[in-house]
Amino acid sequence: MAGKQINRRDFVTGGALAVGALAGGLAEAQTKVPSKAKAPPTQAKAPSTRSILNYNQNMEYRKLGKTGLMISAISLGGHWKRIEIELGKEKVPARYSDSDFSYPNIPGFMQARDRVLAHCIDVGINYLDAMAAPEVLVYGQLLKGRRDKMYLGYAWWQKEPRIAQYRTANALLQGLEENLKAAGLDYIDLWRIALPMEGVPDLSELQRVEEATIAGLTKAKQQGKARFTGVSSHNRVWLKSLIEAYPKQIEVAIFPYTASSKELPTDSLFDTIRENDVGVFGIKPFADNSLFAGTSFPNDPHLADDDRRARLALRYILSNPAITAPIPGLINTHQVDNAVQAVRERRQLDENEKAELDQAGRRMWASLHPGHEWLRDWEYV
Predict the structure, then answer these.
(1) Any idea where the domains of the chain sit in the sequence?
(2) Within a 10 A sphere around the Cβ of 259, how many other Cβ atoms?
(3) Are 324 and 64 in contact (CB under 8 A)?
(4) CB atoms within 10 A of CB 238
(5) If 0-12 CB within 10 Å is exposed, 13-18 middle and 19+ buried, where does residue 26 land?
(6) Where are the beta strands (DSSP E) in the chain?
(7) Which of 44, 242, 254, 311 could be a cystine partner for 232, CB 3.0 to 4.6 Å?
């Protein structure tokens, strides 16, 4: 454990060391080619399609690490950013907030979300990720009668270790019980606790967060409240260390992986993921929609180009076999169909497509929305 303690100490008490090490790794990644290519994983016998939840022959399914679940290669993120596509700008707040409980009171909102969820089921998508209180409450209601079609990933960060009072196992479990009751859920398929985004002030507090998280996940699984467990994190160094320290409890990891993210040639998070058979969901595939030139409205003049960028990004992300699925927040049925089309297109990008996506990626980094500049830390993973 000595090496792991050093990583954690760097993260919380010597931030400059951790950031400097990461920056050095990025510079190395840009100039150094791996000396030895990684061997492809051994091909296991494909599971029977009967074992795949909500199977559709036009969808690809990937194993979610050691959970054994077969997950649709495109899955549904819980955010409903740009919901004005369906409802109109005059009805919807200017920016999505994962602490805003007013959405279900907006006329047509629940019907719009229900249309998307139903269409996702129709095309074979079988995983939904809800990561905040309003999302859990909305989708808990919409999933009634559909749990045999869709796995539910859950986080309710307002009652998780991002908030200091929820840094004990008992507090986490009490919050989980309260939230399941409020959402009308008996259990969740995946509890992926949302770790603090800005870090914690000292090593003792970091250890408190880790111990509470692991104990809470373990007990929730023992009690049948969560079938599988994991974490989401915005800190690559910390996440890597956690997986190495607690491979049994961290069955799934959720972290950013954009249209311009790349695997580090050495000391990559993916090395640890492969070694421990961890399932991966990639968030922010479009970098908070900064990848796109237009608004994503159906009548936007940039719609065709933005649809193509979305498909290029999804094809690129899925070319990394360690990623189970990206989880974009799809707003309407057109976006669902466009994402599914990406699964059916050729996986590897040709040289022209790579150049096109690289150019779009440079614009993406230059136009990140305020508050999302941290995504640059995930250009190399």
Answers:
(1) 2-28+48-378
(2) 24
(3) yes
(4) 24
(5) middle
(6) 61-63, 70-72, 76-77, 127-130, 151-154, 188-194, 226-232, 252-256, 279-283, 325-326
(7) 254
Sign of the alpha-carbon dihedral angle for 34, 278, 358, 369: negative
Homologous superfamily, domain 2-28+48-378: NADP-dependent oxidoreductase domain (3.20.20.100)
Spatial contact of 287 and 258, defined as CB atoms under 8 Å apart: yes
DSSP secondary structure letters along 26-70: HHHHHH---SSPPPPPP-PPPPPGGGSTT--TTS-EEE-GGG--E
Helices 2-13 and 203-222: angle between axes, nearest 10 degrees: 120
Q: Residue 129: name the closest of 213, 66, 192 by CA.
A: 192
Which single residue is written with the structure tokens 């070319």? Answer: 319
Q: At what angle do helices 236-245 and 2-13 cross, to 10 degrees?
A: 150
User: Residue 284 corresponds to which amino acid?
Assistant: K
**Token pair listed for 215:** 């104990």
Question: For all residues of the chain together, what is the average pLDDT?
Answer: 88
The per-residue pLDDT for range 117-176, each reduced to its tens digit, is 999 999 999 999 999 999 999 999 999 999 999 999 999 999 999 999 999 999 999 999
Instruction: Kindly tell me if the per-residue pLDDT of 273 is higher than 60.
Output: yes
160-203 pLDDT tens trace:
999 999 999 999 999 999 999 999 999 999 999 999 987 677 88
d(CA 74, CA 119): 13
